[in-house]
């Protein structure tokens, strides 16, 4: 938002650089606020939600001060869209995926242990805080470059992992690749529906995923509670 509102002509390079830097800065802030006796997931999520609301207020402030001619473009990007995307927009995401995917798959057994409880990984000699910090930093970078590419399509990050676990189980060596593929498929389906349902008008892919994924996520939560 800073780049778009202050330097509208900025290219993919400046957007990607700023996104990764500010994404990691936000991640560091959340870690600093949430770190008390280790990086516990529940505390991390709650602090992250609080920081998210604060940054949403900053985003709204920048949007109000932006050039009115840029407002539709910014709103479309915040809704998540693949409209007008070209190969240069895809390359940063592809490069980061090529580096991050083997790292995450290599740590799949660590992820399995972290999902058990807080004590088992420590008993087996794992440095829980360091491992969790490294994995979350990778997630922060992946999220940053993804948002630069297609805008905010955050709901797919909630739906795809649950869908993957329901298909192949909880072991991360299987669920991570399936979550990646199902997340990409969800974006493609949402983009196709958004382009065709009310053609010639379009609904951004991020909004379509939220419309379809919201009820699905509620169903999953009700099912797990039962």
What can you see in these coordinates?
The protein has 226 residues and is mainly alpha-helical. It folds into two domains: 1-152, ABC transporter involved in vitamin B12 uptake, BtuC (Orthogonal Bundle); 153-221, no CATH class. The chain has eleven helices and no strands. Helix 2 (12-34) packs across helix 3 (41-65) and helix 2 (12-34) packs antiparallel against helix 8. The radius of gyration is 19 Å and the shape is globular. The mean pLDDT is 80.
Output the helix-strand order.
Answer: HHHHHHHHHHH
**Largest sheet report:** none
Shape: globular
Gap from first CA to last CA: 42 Å
Radius of gyration: 19 Å
Counting copies of identical and different chains, the oligomeric state is single chain
Descriptors for this entry?
226 residues, single chain, mainly alpha, 2 domains, ABC transporter involved in vitamin B12 uptake, BtuC
Summarize the model shown.
The protein has 226 residues and is mostly helical. The protein is 78% helix and 0% strand.
Helix-strand layout with pairing:
Blueprint: H1 2-6, H2 12-34, H3 41-65, H4 71-79, H5 87-106, H6 108-114, H7 119-123, H8 128-150, H9 156-168, H10 172-196, H11 205-225
Helix pairs in contact: 2-3, 2-8, 5-8, 9-10, 9-11, 10-11
